[in-house]
Write a structure and sequence with these properties.
This protein has one domain. About 20% of the residues lie in helices and about 35% in strands. The chain has about 80 residues and is of the alpha+beta class. A five-stranded antiparallel sheet has the order 1-2-3-4-5. β2 and β3 form a beta hairpin.
């Protein structure tokens, strides 16, 4: 899988964010190390061919730093014995 990484302006804090675009699938990820903003546009149904995908096959996830912190704590808790 190939990707192109670029630097863009964060839509949340206006500082520099990283944009990782997977050109073979069209999926994209944005992460801002300054404010913790995260956005992902990913394919939900990986069983379909790219030419068969519809709008319903895509999912957008968007988090702020506070939500990222909460999700990380939940993930770490679930990994504890």
């Amino acid at each position: 899988m190939g990707s192109v990484i670029d630097y863009i302006e964060c839509s949340n804090c206006k500082k520099e964010a990283v944009f990782d675009y997977y050109y073979k699938t069209g999926e994209g990820y944005i992460h801002c190390p300054s404010c913790g903003y995260y956005r992902a546009e990913v394919i939900k149904n990986k069983d379909k061919k790219l030419t068969e995908l519809t709008k319903e096959d895509w999912e957008t996830k968007e988090y702020t730093k506070e939500l990222n912190r909460v999700l990380l704590l939940i993930e770490l808790e679930s990994e504890m014995p």
